[in-house]
Amino acid sequence: MNGPNLRKRLSNQAVIVWVVTEIAATIFGLLVVGVLLGASIYLNWPLWIRWSFFLFAVFPIVLLPWSMYRPFLLYRNWRYDVSVEFLRLKRGAMKEVHDLIPMSKIQHVRMEQGPLLKKYGLCTIKVQTISSSHEIPMLPKDIALELKERIAFHARIVEEGE
């Protein structure tokens, strides 16, 4: 799909947040499997269960290089652009996905910031239409706020209480 070049990128801090998230998920998974493996040894469960837990522990370690490379791929391939008529999103390295969301179909725009994103000063913009939901992750807070207001203005969304 050859469309206009999308030049706006996510924050370069996105890579750090995604790497930290991948490491935390791997450590959590290994802890859970470790506890289950310890319980299986302590409670003398059948040998096949122990081997299963051992394999579940090895699996994340084998995938760790991919977990560290994936955030760089995500960052390098995520683009977005906003015009008066459309919100354009592009993502994906192996399977490239282009979303073209008409401003007239946007019903709701939300800015979210969890604890990890807050630590790095990042936010995620979520846009909802009647049939789907889209997001632009890992934007600096000031850019996210401006983008949210711009999308809301072009989509003619009025804040409650006005």
Q: What's the short story on this structure?
A:
This protein has 162 residues and is α+β, with helices and mostly antiparallel strands. It folds into 2 domains: 9-75; 80-155, PH-domain like, CATH 2.30.29.
List its salient traits.
transmembrane, 162 residues, four-stranded antiparallel sheet, transmembrane helix, membrane, YdbS-like_PH, elongated, 25% strand, 7 strands, PH-domain like
Secondary-structure topology with pairs:
Blueprint: E1 8-9, H1 13-42, H2 47-77, E2 79-82, E3 86-91, E4 97-102, E5 106-112, H3 115-119, E6 122-129, E7 133-140, H4 141-155
Antiparallel strand pairs: 1-2, 2-3, 3-4, 5-6, 6-7
Helix pairs in contact: 1-2
Major beta sheet summary: 4 strands, antiparallel
CATH class of the largest domain: Mainly Beta
- Cα-atom radius of gyration: 21 Å
The number of distinct β-strands equals: 7
**Cα shape:** elongated
Spatial strand arrangement across the major sheet: 1-2-3-4
Distance between the termini: 40 Å
Beta fraction: 25-35%
Helix content: 40-55%
Q: Could you name the ranges where pLDDT drops below 50 across 5 or more consecutive residues?
A: none
CATH architectural type of the largest domain: Roll
What is the domain total for the residues? 2
- Average per-residue pLDDT, rounded, comes to 91
